Amino acid sequence: MKEPCSPSCGCASAAADTAVATPVAVARVNGQPLQRADETLSEDELRQRACTELLRQAAQRAGLLAADDSAADGVPGEAAVDAIEQLLEQSLQIPEPSEEACRRHHAAHAARYRIGERVHVRHILFAVTPGVDVVALRKRAEGALLDVRSHDGTGDPFVEAARKLSNCPSGAEGGELGWLTAQDCAPEFAREIFGQSEVGVLPRLVHSRFGLHVVDVQQREAGADQPFESVHGAVAMTLRQQTYVTALRQYLALLAGQAELEGVELDAADTPLVQ
């Protein structure tokens, strides 16, 4: 991954001599700061810290965490992490998925459970790093996607764009990742690539924990579908995880609706939603 320009490089030195520090508006949850006064966070980072702080305070109210526990600039300590885990175990009721629900899911998503499926892929990564302007980054990524999809057929604009723009070491090789299986990728990346039929530059950006990807699927090998009986456990785990995520979002929305939030926006609800 390419390194950002160093603060000590020549292009920054002149500006550094005259730069004036701008105070950061500190975000808070019920008065508890989520950041240092000199710390700038992205909206996603602020929301993540706010959700953690909501849970930490809820754990205190539930008697699972000492009343004098405090998060250091929005980062919980080990005791708070343990208390939050206990809180979620007590507060989120996650039913076991029925066999009927598992069978329906498998029938609708059989391609996700194939074995032996491979794709030959190259990509251009626009990495999301601390402090990055996500809106500007998305515009750059969308511009690159449009460029490589609308080329006139001469040369290989994907290779040129990857070498120029990609924040992945593969950029030096034109974005080449080679043949991949789903197990080789981050789960959120694999969900967008595998179990599909598209070949060529995908018409949409692919999101992952690393950033935004322009993806070119050059070849596919289909693999073999698995019968329900052989993947029942994996299907049930997927449905449990989906239910957990939904319940957690609803619980956080309820906590946010009862909290005083400053400098951060969260989905909020004023009535209980978790079943």
Structure overview:
The chain is an alpha+beta fold and 275 residues long. The strands form two sheets. Strands 3, 4, 5, 6 and 7 form a five-stranded antiparallel β-sheet that branches. A three-stranded antiparallel β-sheet has the order 2-1-8, with helices on one face. Helix content is 41%, strand content 13%. Strand 1 and strand 2 (32-33) form a beta hairpin. The protein contains eight helices and eight strands; from the N terminus they run αββαααβααβαβββαβ. It has helices spanning 10-18, 43-61, 78-91, 99-108, 134-149, 157-165, 187-193, 228-257; strands at 28-29, 32-33, 118-127, 176-180, 200-201, 206-208, 211-221, 261-262. The longest helix is centred in the C-terminal third of the chain and has 30 residues, at 228-257. Helix 2 crosses helix 3 (78-91).
Measured as a percent range, the helix fraction is 40-55%
Q: Name the overall outline.
A: flat
Specify the number of helices. Answer: 8
Largest sheet: 5 strands, antiparallel
What is the overall pLDDT average?
Answer: 86
Radius of gyration, rounded?
23 Å
Quantity of strands, as a count: 8
Order of helices and strands: HEEHHHEHHEHEEEHE
Task: Give start-end ranges of low-pLDDT stretches.
Answer: 1-23
List the helices and strands and how they pair.
Elements: H1 10-18, E1 28-29, E2 32-33, H2 43-61, H3 78-91, H4 99-108, E3 118-127, H5 134-149, H6 157-165, E4 176-180, H7 187-193, E5 200-201, E6 206-208, E7 211-221, H8 228-257, E8 261-262
Antiparallel strand pairs: 1-2, 1-8, 3-4, 3-7, 5-7, 6-7
Helix pairs in contact: 2-3, 4-8
